[in-house]
Structures are given as C-alpha cells and as structure tokens.
Amino acid sequence: ERVQASVRASLAGVKHVVVVLSGKGGVGKSLVSASLAVGLSLLGKRAAVLDADIHGSSIPWMLGLEEARVAVRGDKLVPPEVRGVAVMSLELLAEDRGAPLVWRGPLKAKAIIDMLTATEWGERDYLVVDLPPGTGDEPLTIAQALGAKGGYAILVVAPGLLVKHVVAKAERFARELNLKLLGVVANMAYFRCPACGAVHRPLGRLEVGESRVLAEIPLDPELADAIDRGELAGYVASSTSEAAR
Amino acid sequence: ERVQASVRASLAGVKHVVVVLSGKGGVGKSLVSASLAVGLSLLGKRAAVLDADIHGSSIPWMLGLEEARVAVRGDKLVPPEVRGVAVMSLELLAEDRGAPLVWRGPLKAKAIIDMLTATEWGERDYLVVDLPPGTGDEPLTIAQALGAKGGYAILVVAPGLLVKHVVAKAERFARELNLKLLGVVANMAYFRCPACGAVHRPLGRLEVGESRVLAEIPLDPELADAIDRGELAGYVASSTSEAAR
Ligand SMILES: Nc1ncnc2c1ncn2[C@@H]1O[C@H](COP(=O)(O)OP(=O)(O)O)[C@@H](O)[C@H]1O
Ligand SMILES: Nc1ncnc2c1ncn2[C@@H]1O[C@H](COP(=O)(O)OP(=O)(O)O)[C@@H](O)[C@H]1O
Ligand SMILES: [Zn+2]
User: Fold this and answer.
1) Which one, out of A241, B2, B172, B211, has a CA that is 20 to 30 A from the CA of B154?
2) Residue range B216-230: average pLDDT?
3) Which residue of B has its CA nearest to A166?
4) Three-state DSSP state, B154
5) Structurally, how many domains does chain A consist of?
6) Across all residues in chain B, what is the average pLDDT?
7) Do B202 and A220 touch (CB under 8 A)?
8) Taking a C-beta distance cutoff of 8 angstroms, is the pair A116, A147 a contact?
9) What is the CATH number of the domain that holds B66?
C-alpha cells in the first residue's frame, strides 16, 4: 500500500520502534513513553517519541514544550528536542494549545500518520510511540500503519479491576502485529509514606499473571510536581528515586 | 427525530437524569457513577445507573454483577438490581464477559442508545449515566440522544496536568446540552497514611478554579479492595470513611 511505503521511507533511519500500550486511559502511558525516551537518550542512544494518542496526550506539557514550534526544512517537519529526544505531536502543530481538536477518531488517526511521514526523524536508535489507550481498532490502525513488524511493545498498567484481561488482550495485540511484548510496567504500584517510611498499596494489589514486570513505579508527589512544571526530563535525569527506575 | 421520541418514551418514569463526565479515562468516573447511584438509593430515592462508556466501564464488576443476567418481559429488558439500584450495561448483554466488544465507536454508541430504549426503567427519581471519557463527539452523541435537557452533570477529575482545561471544556459541554453542571468530584485527591496519619497528595495539587468541589475522595486501599471484590455497594453502605463522603 502507498501509505506503508511512505511511512517506511520516513522511518528509514530508525533502528527500533517501541510501541507503548495500555488497557485504559489514566494509568501513566504517556508518562512511561516520555520517561523511556529520555532514559534511552541519557544512556547515549539517539531517541525520539511520537504522541499517537488521538485522545490527546500530555507529552508536550510533561516535557515543557507547550510553547515549542515545529520548524520546516524543505517539505519536512523538524521536531523540537528535549535532552536530545525528538518529540512530535499534533498538539505542537495546533494553533491554540489545549483546545480540543474536535475531529472524529478515523480523521485524527489519518492526521497522525500524515504527520509521521512528513517528519524528518533522522538517524535514531529508538522511536517510542505513545499509542491511544486500549487494544481496539484505534491503536491497531496506527500500529499497522507504522509497519512496526519486528518491533517491540510495552504494556503500562495501574493496579485495579480486570488487569489480567488487559494483559491477555495486549498479548493478543502484540501477536497480531508481530511485535515482541517486552513486559509490563506497573505504575502507581505503591506509595512510600515520606513521614514514616511505611509502604502502602492505595490502588490495591497488581495481578499480572506470568508476565514479566519490567519496573514498578511508585505514586510519587515529586514526580507529579515535576510533570506539572513540565520538568519530567529533569526529574528522570537527576533522580535517584525509585520512580525513575 | 424518531430516536429521541422513543428515548423519551422509555425514560417517561425517570424524574432526573445526571450525566457523569471526565476529561480522561482512569480518573474514577465509573466509581463515582456507581457510588452516586448507590448513595441515592440508601437515601431512599429510586435510582438507576446506565453504563454508556463505549470504551468499557467496570460498573458491572464493581457491583458484583458479572454473572448477572438481564431478564426479558414482553419486548422490554429488565435490568438486575443491587441495593435497589437498577444497573444496565452492554457488558450484561454480552455472552463472553470481559472479551473486547470490537465494534467501532459509532456502532457502539448506537447499540447503547438501542439498549436504553429497550430497557424497562420504571419509576425512578434519578438515572445516573456513566458517559465515555472526554468532551468530544462520543459523549456528545450519547448525551444528545438521551435528550437530557434540563438534566444535571457532574465532572470527575483526578489531580494532574491541564485540569483547568478539562473544567473549561466540561462547562462548555454542559452549556451546549443545556445541562446544569453541579460541580466537580475530586477523586484520588489525597492519601492519609494508615500507619502514621500524615496526609499526602501523591498525584499533586488539584486546581479547579472557581468550580464547586462537591466532594474530595481520598486514595483508599479499602475502597480499591472492595471494588476488586465487587463489593462497592457494601462499602458505600457501611462505610463511615471519608471516601464514601
Ligand atoms: N507514579 C506517578 N506518581 C504521580 N503521578 C503520576 C504517576 N503516574 C502518573 N501520574 C499522573 O497521572 C496523570 C496521568 O498520567 P498519563 O501518563 O497522562 O496517563 P495516560 O497516558 O495513561 O492517560 C498525569 O497527570 C500524571 O501527573
Ligand atoms: N479513590 C480511590 N481509591 C482507590 N482506588 C481507586 C480510587 N478511585 C479509583 N480507583 C481505582 O482506579 C480504577 C479506575 O477507576 P474507574 O472508576 O474505572 O475510572 P474511569 O471510569 O474514570 O476510567 C479502578 O480500578 C478503581 O479500583
Ligand atoms: Zn506514614
């Protein structure tokens, strides 16, 4: 198909694609996508992150890019960078930031794929893709257009109902797309009281079955504060805390 | 329009409709919808709750109804009840619970509206409707079909980025539909350490501007546990805790 050929051409310099999935919204999928890309860059890899969440991702705000502009070179879009990480999002193209892009789902998915092919990614070891929540047709359409065959997938979960169902659906999703599911990142997994050190699980226990848990991220007020200030990249870089892994 | 007439006929015995909104998924919208309906019933009101979240709502599981069946009387569907609250959800009609209903958005919205008109609601003081997350075309289509003019709306938020944007969008949504926005329920607002009593805000501060905060619900491991066991109704009934308001 013509779309796949132009996507492949624009991703020619990208070695590995890592898609980040979640069963529902609000579990920290954007947080993990942005942190992973920054973490890879701090390890000396060339990384980029694509916000492909049609329901609106907070990646530009978490990384302090709400005022950033996308440059144009020839017919290509040149993404802004934070600590060496190229960041691309429909939000960066919108005139009025934060205003709802009131398009219907399929139109937005097409706009994200057009943006992806128009972007100059250059040479990257990793492209991290923040997919829409769920394992239905929205994330499927985008992951298929990416032609991410042979790529990787990471599932982000928070403790709560039906996590076992979510893990099973994510495994099916990864198989269908020929992706290797690296494992599960358990976010908001516990809270260590700063006053007395006691550890609690406010959202309950996490049951992921036999899946590999890549990391447990605690609920962390310092992390929440860094996100609010658009300083996630600084937090990941400087932090010795558990949350930064 | 013909759809509106049949919706109005099936809701003839319902005095007030309360729609529950959220900016994103995972903030506790289903939890608040189910708790509100149970709370109203405990106050002696006749209440019902409709799961209209096309991305899948956990209301049947939270209320322990995963094995419940919907009865048929004539050409009407008779919803199961928990503590006097009638509960209706596409999940209760699906053969294989928890399997993804892989329909596209617009098809699911139509299925929910058909289910709503086919249900025998009877005489109810309140019908609580758990809408899809966001303020875009999905919740708009369903809220318009409900003909909820003159009804009420409640916004559920959790601390985090862009909450001010979410509040502004919800106000616009309520105005467009001629709904009275009663206020904001702030969920996961704080955590009181069971070991030492210190209060923390793991997800950060909540900034809702001038909106009325109807209730602050803490992160509560007992609540999470009750939800996991399908015992939310029991928790709301027995609990003197802050979470139950
Ligand atoms: N471990 C954590 N500690 C504190 N706050 C968190 C944590 N994980 C997520 N958050 C907050 O929760 C909100 C949701 O995270 P986000 O990554 O946007 O979720 P998703 O992409 O799954 O919708 C963000 O505003 C963020 O501030
Ligand atoms: N205050 C709370 N304390 C503990 N767990 C909570 C709280 N609020 C929500 N949860 C958990 O978070 C998850 C998400 O809640 P849910 O109502 O399904 O969100 P939404 O409908 O907005 O997607 C549920 O699994 C529930 O167990
Ligand atoms: Zn403590």
Assistant:
1) B2
2) 92
3) B98
4) strand
5) 1
6) 88
7) yes
8) no
9) 3.40.50.300
